[in-house]
Amino acid sequence: MAIEAYDNLILYVVLKENLTLDESLKQKIKDKMRQELGPYFIPDYIIQVSDIPLTLNFKKLEVPVKKILMGWDINKAVRIDSISNPDALYTLMELSKPVIEEIKRKRT
What we know:
By secondary structure, the chain is of the alpha+beta class. Helix content is 45%, strand content 13%. It contains 4 helices and 3 strands.
């Protein structure tokens, strides 16, 4: 799942159990995206998550996640009872905090 926040593209990935998101794998992902999609789609940040938050209809929560990353209150961005895996949303938000803080620091 890819989200644009503060003019930065953040890619959330769920990896197979035997893989670890290290710098080598991040570079492979970026190279493959450049080759397949073009330079506009290369993520600025790649974050490994255990699960992607989904609605009860199995749609990714891209817009609500973007709103939350941009500072919206979580309860205004999404109805928690409409998420099939709310723990995935909370985990994603927690893992995103350092990245968002870094992005904000770079902007000032």
